[in-house]
Design goal:
This protein is of the alpha+beta class. The chain has 2 domains: 61 residues, no CATH class; 226 residues, no CATH class. Helices cover 36% and strands 24% of the residues. The chain is built from 8 helices and 14 strands. β4 and β5 form a beta hairpin. α2 packs antiparallel against α3 and α3 packs across α6. It is globular and about 80 Å long. In the C-terminal section; belongs to the transposase 35 family.
Amino acid sequence: MIIPRIKLKDGIFEIPMSREFKKEHGEVKIQLPERLKNKNIKEVRIHPKYSARWFEIEYIYEDEKIETSVNSDSAIAIDLGVDNLAACFDTDGHQFLIDGKRLKSINQWYNKRNAELQSEGDKQGIKRLTNKQAQLNQWRNDSIRDYLNKSARIIINHCLIYQIGKLVVGYNPGIKQEINIGRSNNQNFVQIPFWQLRQKLKAMCSRYGIEYFEQEESYSSKASFFDRDEIPVYNADNPGKYKFSGKRIKRGLYRTKDKHLVCADINGSANILVKSKHRLSFERVSSGFLANPLRTYVS
């Protein structure tokens, strides 16, 4: 249900309905959330969830663009993954990881609990989604949404602190979904809605005057940034064989040509920055390349 305009009275608006429905069921009124009372509400959307067992309300409003002093010559690249949700590397050499293991644990507990509930339902001959399963699904969706919101905020805050005017996110779902990373990792990868994080980053970049780009990322995890490897573009119709200077080894480390160990995911994000063709000083950023960059945990 979409309500294009709402009329507020004491912070409350009424859901439009037919006379017959109102006569039978009475009026339905909703309290506008306190944090939205000074917003210019353009539209209200009411979504029935799980066969209308409950409803989710979405408020569409205009948000003012915030004036910031960012520098378009500075950029940050982001490589998205599972154990490390986001590996971030900027043109000043700053690098940090946003932990993704909490998201994995959410999905793992969800899968285990949902299997238990499904087994109980099967024993009782229940074919549809049970109330407990619906509540579990909602919990998982809310938990992941909250985690991604906070993760996006951490990245944008970094951009504002260091006046970074360009944000580049690695994007190549066709290749990452097809690689063999094991049954468990494949399941975790599919269950993490990276597109939601991209959309959140894009919206926040627009609000703060930061340019947002998505960069094709093929071979970024295999090439050695430290050795300045050329990074080709994957061609599914004619996949080539390429030899790179370094190699990804165990525990998330990448070994360069000179046996120097660096964080594999940071190496990937640095290569995404290279593929974006953004100007950067190799000497400036490579001097601080770390095997164990700062890991940020989302509370």
